[in-house]
Specification:
alpha+beta, six-stranded mixed β-sheet, 20 strands, globular
């Protein structure tokens, strides 16, 4: 096994720190082992817990894991070629095995090797409780086959064990997210350099993809696009051509070794109308005023109340989903409804997609606006990772 530096990887110190935290939570939950099945859903974000333990993933790589409380960790990939590649480019896990597309069989074999005593508890990652997949993502037949092989073991959901371990980011993780932010901003700048009335949306999308890959980014990644008349919200790049007066809203994510940064890069084809310019300036002030309030030890509920109060004072109603955690996927903390009661508190090292928004009370669609970016919670508030000016771009006609 060789550390080849062909792809970005984390240190062994980072691995040991992660595994220690996860095993502490496993012990507290009385779990003797974790298992994780492959899943590439939602731009691979639904496989984030397994990738967190293995650092294997990206470009639709399928990966599974058996993670014992004490014994050696084993990971599984799809083919012999994958075994060769991942054994060469990472040094976290020596035991990389070929699943041959039958994932339950090698997992069963590894669990038998561990000789877990009867009534041992096995935690299943992703069985339930993922933030955007609360019903779980575990393939039914795979799971049933493993359960049938071990009637004396107890299988329970263990999503929260890894999800909670992932919430606070290490210095190495934050550095990777900062790299992803640079990749995202570079891609947006290069996309706007060719944007003109008459240029198809899919050409702009392709330019961002080219830029991301050239600068070390990873696929799949999410680009959410809203433009045109009617304003269709979609993930699919279409050949629709930009035209004068189009208002473009978006959520653009870039990945670096799976770690995600998201930026908002709104634009309008032609001059920005004065009314829209004023609204965007107000939304920018909202973002900037809220960042210092995101402090370690503060209850998310309290920040939600401050958010609502500030937005209403500006003459608008607050938008939902003003923030959510990000790392390899959806992380804690999450604020879907700013007025929902929650005991969750912010911690130094939380990384958030922070995008407070304003909804007009009169229902005027052109007054909806969010200003957002990736931020990290520090002792003095949320620090914005981006360097790009928070401004609306004017696309030439």
């Amino acid at each position: 096994m060789t550390d080849s530096n062909l792809i970005p990887t984390f240190s062994l110190k980072e691995r040991d720190s992660r595994w220690h935290r996860v095993r502490q939570r496993m012990a507290a939950a009385k779990l003797d082992c974790l298992i994780g099945f492959p899943n590439q859903g939602r731009f691979e974000q639904l496989q984030a817990n397994t990738r967190y333990l293995t650092q294997i993933g990206g470009y639709a790589t399928e990966v599974a894991v058996v993670f014992p409380l004490e014994a050696e960790v084993t990971t599984f990939v799809q083919s012999a070629n994958d075994v060769d590649f991942w054994s060469f480019v990472q040094n976290w896990i020596p035991d990389v095995r070929n699943a041959r597309r039958l994932w339950s069989d090698p997992i069963i074999k590894r669990l038998k090797e561990l000789k877990l005593p009867p009534r041992s508890r096995v935690g299943v990652i992703g069985l339930t409780g993922l933030i955007r997949a609360p019903e779980g993502v575990v393939p039914w037949f795979m799971f049933e086959k493993v359960k049938e092989a071990f009637p004396d073991l107890e299988f329970v959901s263990a999503t929260e064990v890894v999800l909670e371990s992932r919430a606070v980011k290490s210095a190495e993780e934050i550095a990777f997210i900062e790299k992803a932010e640079v990749i995202a901003e570079t891609a947006v700048n290069e996309m706007f350099a060719i944007a003109r009335a008459g240029v198809p949306e899919n050409v702009l999308y392709a330019e961002m993809m080219r830029s991301m890959i050239t600068n070390g980014g990873e696929l799949p990644t999410m680009i959410y696009w809203i433009s045109g008349e009617p304003e269709l919200r979609h993930l699919v790049p279409t050949p629709r051509k930009l035209k004068a007066g189009d208002m473009i809203s978006n959520e653009i994510e870039a990945k670096y070794a799976g770690y995600i940064a998201q930026i908002n890069a709104p634009a309008i084809v032609g001059p920005v109308p004065d009314r829209l310019h004023r609204i965007y300036e107000t939304a920018t002030k909202l973002f900037e005023d809220l960042c210092p309030l995101v402090l370690p030890g503060k209850k998310m509920t309290d920040l939600g109340k401050e958010y609502v109060e500030i937005v209403k004072g500006l003459g608008f109603n607050p938008a939902p989903w003003p923030m959510h955690g990000r790392g390899l996927g959806d992380d804690l903390p999450v604020m879907q409804n700013p007025l929902a009661e929650s005991d969750m508190v912010f911690e130094e090292g939380h990384v958030l997609i922070f995008k407070p928004g304003m909804i007009p009370r009169d229902g005027a669609a052109d007054a909806n606006e969010r200003v957002g970016d990736t931020v990290v919670v520090t002792k003095t508030g949320a620090r914005r990772l981006g360097k790009r000016p928070l401004a609306m771009t004017e696309i030439p006609l």
